[in-house]
Amino acid sequence: MPSQTLELKAVGAFPKLFLDYITKNEALATFYSQFPDIEGFRKAIQSRNFTQEKRQTLVSALEKQYSHLDSKPDFSILLDDKTFTVTTGHQLNIFTGPLYVIYKIVTIINLAKKLKTEFPEYNFVPVYWMASEDHDFEEISVFNLFGKNYKWETTQKGAVGRMNPAELRAICDQIPERVEFFQNAYLNQGTLANAVRCYMSHLFQDEGLICLDADDTALKAIFSSVIKDDLLHHTASKAVHETSEKLHASGYHTQITPREINFFYLEDGLRERIVQEDGAYKILHTDISFTEAEILQLVDSNPERFSPNVVLRPLYQETILPNLAYIGGPSEVPYWLQLKGVFDHYQEQFPLLMPRNFALVVNEASRKKIDKLGITTEELFADEVTLRKSFVEKNSRKSLSLAFEIDEINDIFERILKKALMIEATMKGPVEGVKAKSINSLEHLEKRIKRAEERNQEGSVNQLLALKEKLFPGGGLQERKENFLNFYLNDNLFIKKLLDTLDPLDYSFNIIEI
């Protein structure tokens, strides 16, 4: 697939904190450990420690989670002290959700391959951290295919990974083409987490991808000391507040706000915040309550009942994985920068923070329209008003600007003012007033000329705006709206072509032609 790149700042869609991070702004140097380049990975490999006991617990958990699949990765490689993971995570959006979820996984797979080339004596495993404990069903329940939204309707509640996806049969029957691997996953697996693992294994077979569900008793037990500390001392809340204040002082907006207790209580059909009130630990919106002794005992006996929020999930991830890097989007990388103090307190190595790949996919039909209109793909990144204005001006046979004439008016009034001041010093105001009215009239006339020319070019302008909407639906980036099936159904090698095209360490925006 032919491709070209743009600087991310030229896209106009990313926050300042993210852009400053990837351009190594010195103001952010204290908020992370190593920058995600080859030298940064070299240092991370040398300093990363992970016990054999944790490796064995991780492998046992993965073997159990993959027991329902006929084909599975070789987990034994994770028992080797020279094996590390590179990780991305996302919610369990139906039918994978927006296109960028695929880009995330392509990034970690390609990163693992690149690191193996650079450091052949080590092994690198791409891990998809499934956000199975997330309970925001609305965020995962919709996906867009060929311009139409499909929504999962259910009365199920609680952690989405535990939900039964069989109700998705209705959507499988509605979409224009039967997609066998989704149908098999959703209708034959008992939980959404198992279904996601099933179809991801199909989509990325032979790429060594591991899908991890951290909603696991043995894995949570590794994290029990942090759970207790958060319940008793609220350490993470204090650390994030301090880091956030430093970022604010440097002029940055922060993404997340910690709570005193950064855990939810988790059972089937229930995920609610734990709060401390009147000397007891209460579960919001329920009648469940614990004394301090009871809740600490529960951490020991049932650690799976405690689900970390956005503040402590990253620490949990790095505690149970031999991880080197976390790959995230333009919102994720900034909030991880708020967490450095948390990692420092718990003496856990802070991972390299890497942007995922970003891309705009341009099919042959869109490319023909771009060429016919005589524009570049880069021009389409402009907002609609700017795009329309520049297109009309570029395609007009006459200059639409009255800038030259306005400059002449300025010169004329300069001469008038000199004459007037020779006669009467109070004439400056009236002369300046007439000048302002004249210039305002010319500027208004210029707008009318441009609108008239827009009407002359109405057909071409409408084609341009239709193309803009096609490639930037709703005015936003394609990757945030469209589903990968928009391309995969026409070319089942689409994912392979992404793997062959995208460079995980090139922090640019890709324009890919298919």
TrEMBL record:
Pfam short name (any one): Rossmann-like_BshC
Keywords: Coiled coil, Ligase
Statement: the UniProt record of this protein carries the keyword Coiled coil: yes
Coiled coil regions in record: 435-462
Bacillithiol biosynthesis BshC C-terminal coiled-coil domain residues: 359-513
EC number assigned by the record: 6.-.-.-
The keyword Protease is annotated on this UniProt entry: no
Domain annotation Bacillithiol biosynthesis BshC N-terminal Rossmann-like: ranges: 2-357
Family, as annotated: Belongs to the BshC family.
Protein name per its UniProtKB record: Putative cysteine ligase BshC
Lineage: Bacteria, Pseudomonadati, Bacteroidota, Cytophagia, Cytophagales
